């Protein structure tokens, strides 16, 4: 979970609502069904070539029904695919495949496992309730097809049947397959959506902060560019006031105009100073940036000690937010102290964050940076004010790697150690460089 203190700068804690996407495009369902139809026709042709006997006409009728469904979807496509329409389409596929299975030997048909495809597609695109409903229907239809299946016959007319124990094993495997594939696919999809939403919220907040910083440059430029015309207005108004000494009413208007120009100049001068300060915030000493990242967690219990001295670096809001997440994780599990150190050498800038907590378990180290790593083994209870990391380490790792950094997670010292290394030319900034030309405000 992203650090709530980051959003107090004015960016919304929740991203703006996005238009709900279709659960799955009808074009995708139609394409998958065409592949299924091609496979079914190929299986019929091969089976007949091998001399295997089955009810050919009913099988072809079922394949023709699938072709008709696809043609209907192509010729009269719906304007938008709803979840209910997707369920109907997938249920049709389950019924069609189960009926084919019943006409071609039931569990003795080696292609019976294809009945798992519709429920797997549902698990990746629909919610849990609809997936469970379709999975239950699949299990019921497969069971019915197994009980009332028409047997296959070989070239000599002998029935091709499975031994009861083997048939029970195939049926059990299909039931387990429905549950496993649907559950696994749904879980993966939910995690990917949560990851996408968290990254979207973080990117929105970072983009807003960057826009506010760029606004400072525009304000400074506006103050500079408008200074001369305001001075001209002030001068002309003063001269008019002198010339209109014999017209008190007009002289008062000229004096009011001069006073307003003076006030505008004062306001712009103040805004210009603030804007220049914002421009300078694009770079900062390394220690100042680390203090900014650690500040929200300074009073949460463990002592946060910064032993960092380094060059001026690029003050990127994404880097600060990522470091803040790493420091939050260290504070959450530290016993009494978190130490932040820096080192420069061989063209690299290295920042190390270490705590005196229980460290990472081997299982966590293997999955560190994944969207949903488990917590540290033996960690202390969550402290007051802890909002949970959730995707915090994943987001921090993603943002820092985008800035050119490399991350290493380890144990020792005691507790956990996170090392962030940047190529010096990617992170260092020249604090003495000029601000550059003011942007042109008028075409």
UniProtKB/TrEMBL annotation:
Topology within the bilayer: Multi-pass membrane protein
Enzyme Commission numbers on file: 2.7.13.3
Keyword Transmembrane helix found: yes
PANTHER family: SENSOR PROTEIN CREC, SENSOR PROTEIN RSTB
Domain Histidine kinase residue range list: 221-426
Keywords per UniProt: ATP-binding, Cell membrane, Kinase, Membrane, Nucleotide-binding, Phosphoprotein, Transferase, Transmembrane, Transmembrane helix
The protein, known as: histidine kinase
Biological source species: Paracoccus sediminis
Cross-referenced Pfam families: 6TM_PilS (PF25323), HATPase_c (PF02518)
InterPro entries per UniProt: 2C_sensor_his_kinase (IPR050980), HATPase_C_sf (IPR036890), HATPase_dom (IPR003594), His_kinase_dom (IPR005467), HisK_dim/P_dom (IPR003661), HisK_dim/P_sf (IPR036097), RegB (IPR047770), Sig_transdc_His_kin-like_C (IPR004358)
Keyword Lyase among UniProt keywords: no
Compartments, record wording: Cell membrane
TM segment ranges: 30-47, 54-75, 95-119, 131-150, 162-184
Coiled coil spans: none
Enzymatic reactions: ATP + protein L-histidine = ADP + protein N-phospho-L-histidine
GO CC term (a single one): plasma membrane
């Amino acid at each position: 979970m992203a650090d709530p203190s980051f959003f107090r700068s004015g960016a919304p804690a929740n991203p703006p609502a996005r238009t709900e996407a279709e659960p799955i495009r009808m074009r995708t369902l139609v394409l998958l069904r065409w592949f299924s139809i091609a496979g079914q026709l190929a299986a019929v042709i091969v089976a007949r070539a091998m001399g295997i006997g089955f009810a050919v006409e009913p099988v072809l009728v079922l394949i023709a029904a699938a072709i008709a469904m696809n043609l209907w979807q192509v010729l009269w496509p719906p304007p938008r695919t709803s979840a209910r329409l997707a369920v109907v389409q997938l249920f049709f596929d389950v019924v069609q495949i189960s009926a084919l299975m019943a006409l071609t030997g039931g569990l003795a048909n080696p292609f019976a496992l294809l009945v798992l495809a519709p429920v797997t597609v549902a698990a990746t695109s629909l919610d849990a309730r609809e997936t469970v409903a379709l999975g239950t229907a699949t299990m019921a239809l497969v069971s019915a097809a197994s009980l009332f299946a028409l047997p296959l016959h070989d070239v000599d007319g002998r029935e091709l049947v499975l031994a009861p124990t083997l048939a029970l094993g195939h049926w059990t495997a299909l039931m387990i397959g429905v549950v496993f594939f649907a559950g696994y696919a749904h879980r993966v999809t939910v995690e990917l959506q949560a990851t996408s939403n968290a990254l979207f919220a973080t990117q929105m907040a970072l983009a807003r902060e960057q826009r506010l910083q760029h606004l400072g440059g525009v304000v400074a430029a506006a103050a500079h560019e408008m200074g001369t015309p305001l001075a001209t207005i002030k001068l002309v108004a003063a001269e008019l006031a002198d010339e209109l000494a014999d017209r008190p009413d007009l002289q008062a208007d000229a004096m009011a105009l001069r006073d307003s120009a003076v006030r505008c100049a004062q306001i712009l001068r103040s805004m210009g100073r603030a804007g220049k300060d914002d421009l300078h915030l694009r770079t900062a000493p390394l220690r100042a940036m680390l203090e900014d990242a650690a500040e929200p967690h300074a009073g949460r219990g463990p002592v946060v000690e910064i032993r960092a001295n380094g060059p001026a670096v690029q003050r990127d809001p994404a880097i600060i937010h990522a470091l803040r997440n790493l420091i939050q994780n260290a504070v959450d599990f530290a016993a009494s102290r978190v130490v932040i150190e820096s080192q420069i050498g061989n063209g690299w800038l290295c920042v190390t964050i270490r705590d005196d907590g229980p460290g990472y378990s081997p299982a966590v180290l293997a999955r560190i940076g994944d969207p949903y790593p488990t917590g540290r083994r033996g960690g202390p209870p969550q402290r007051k004010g802890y909002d949970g990391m959730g995707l915090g380490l994943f987001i921090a790792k993603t943002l820092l790697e985008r800035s050119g950094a490399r991350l290493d997670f380890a144990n020792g010292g005691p507790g956990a150690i996170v090392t962030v290394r940047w190529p010096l030319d990617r992170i260092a900034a020249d604090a003495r460089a000029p601000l550059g030309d003011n942007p042109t405000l008028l075409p």
